[in-house]
Amino acid sequence: MNYHWNWGIFFQQVSSSDDTYLDWIITGLGWTVAVAMSAWVIALVLGSIMGTLRTVQSKPLVMVGTVWVELFRNVPILVQLFIWFFVVPELLPRDLSLWVKQDMPGKEFFTATLALGLFTSARVAEQVRAGIQSLSRGQRYAGLALGFTEAQTYRYVILPMAFRFIIPPLTSEFMNAFKNSAVAFAIGVMDLTFISRQMVEESGQVIESLLAATVLYVICAMAANRVMSFIEKRSHVPGFILAK
Amino acid sequence: MIEINKVSKWYGSFQVLTDCTTQIAKGEVVVVCGPSGSGKSTLIKCVNGLEPIQQGNIAVNGTAINDPKTDLPKLRARVGMVFQHFELFPHMSIIKNLSIGQVKVLGRSEDEAHAKGMKLLERVGLKAHANKYPGEMSGGQQQRVAIARALSMDPICMLFDEPTSALDPEMINEVLDVMVELAHEGMTMMVVTHEMGFARKVANRVVFMDQGKIVEDAAKEEFFGQPRSERAQQFLSKILHH
Ligand SMILES: Nc1ncnc2c1ncn2[C@@H]1O[C@H](COP(=O)(O)OP(=O)(O)OP(=O)(O)O)[C@@H](O)[C@H]1O
Ligand SMILES: [Mg+2]
Question: Which of A113, A146, A217, B235 is the most buried (most CB within 10 A)?
Fold first, then answer.
């Protein structure tokens, strides 16, 4: 193999600017973290609401949750991203449409975050629903019998336990948010994937560039994992045995 | 206090309750028994509206349960309920289990709710366990906490659905003792149970159900003396001689 290794490449300047390749990578990491974290917040909030709706008494609300999940879960993330980026602006009223297409600041970041957030929310919703349904029916009866309204029963009785049950699957969704954020490069967000491809082109150091991105993605996913297991430890219920 | 009048209920096309009628007067203790699947749990859940009924009506303290205008949470807050599997809230400490309803439903202050919770724990002999979690206690202890939780809301009547049938035999009495004491204090109680010793001791009446119908509704002496229906006789002889 006559590949020419050059680990010093990260400290060399990019030909067209004052930045080093390391500066580039750090910027890329920043965008990846920003997209993944903001999308995760959206996913957690909307996913919790939609997943809960699928379990309530009111049939129309159940319907809303179901449609939401089926819509965002069954279309590939890249297709959703393109729809939000290319199609939706065309459907807006004329002035708004023009503004979005020409002047909207941070349009790429905003669109990528929204698309990833909604996509992930459908997956979170399914976990939340499964968590709620794994609770015994008796817990709901007990909450209601105490005089709680349905909303209070969810708030104080059902959701606190349901979320504890689903920390493991939520952990993988959180990690997926980082991995899936890589689609953002397709609409021009300068995330890790975008930057590493750019670096390959500019420097020709294919392996170093892609390895840097790979390592940073792994570190992000591991960090997400650590955060979740910290939460899991903190929320442990004394004496509670999972198999119920 | 509790009036159940010609109540019928279906799960889909399956009729669980057929034309059930009975009353429980203030201060009365009524034991409900019958074979598995006869609809006892369903009937008792209809009393506080946890399960809807399709025909007939139920009134608690004069308030119709199946009237859409009734504020069900408000009514349920005053009807204590104890379940077969305790149903304490596992993520809350024992004292929190006893105070959360008082605070969130009745609007009492944390301090007041805490004080009342501690008093009730003392009463069921579990004061030392206030800061434990349900998962750290035995079934008998959990069920006593569950009774205390129901009492924390100052109920006007209490519903029990097989409160001792999930317990190990040696724990049954500690729970029954609390219930007997309640009965002696004049609490209105509807109790689904197969503990005939309890029924003999404190029940005023025994209701016997079979296949969704109330087939026997008699004063205790009469029921244990000679039940009219053959099913009740068979059931009794099975239960008393097992
Ligand atoms: N949610 C439900 N959906 C459909 N059928 C139900 C439901 N709950 C109970 N049933 C059926 O209704 C009938 C009465 O059930 P119920 O639990 O009231 O009986 P039970 O007398 O309490 O019995 P057990 O002694 O076993 O507790 C049973 O045949 C049961 O299978
Ligand atoms: Mg039952």
Answer: A146
